[in-house]
Amino acid sequence: MVSIEKFRKLAMSFPDATEEPHFEKTSFLIKKKIFATFDEKNNRAVLKLNEIDQSVFCASSEKIFYEVPNKWGKQGWTIVELSRVKPEMFEDALIRSYENVATKKK
């Protein structure tokens, strides 16, 4: 299980990461682009993965990682069930999400 405190500490440890509200969620950004959100009500994260990483994480455990069920999911946005994910796996996914957004070309 990953708590919001652990999530926040890890997300804010990345260079130039910021935290801002995003509707009813908390978002974590790099270069004004969201790489992760936290939905406290449902204890879920949403991460921006590339297509390959999304397929790998989703295949590893469909009950922990799954595509956002709309066009955003097809763009790599992936839901993570924080009550079920192992901290090491979440950390790996969050790092990949940060790197995906931080290195994306304009």
Automatic annotation (TrEMBL):
Name listed for the protein in its UniProt record: MmcQ/YjbR family DNA-binding protein
Pfam families: YjbR
InterPro entries named in the record: YjbR-like_sf (IPR038056), YjbR/MT2646/Rv2570-like (IPR058532)
Organism expressing this protein natively: Flavobacterium potami
Keywords for this protein: DNA-binding
Molecular functions per Gene Ontology: DNA binding
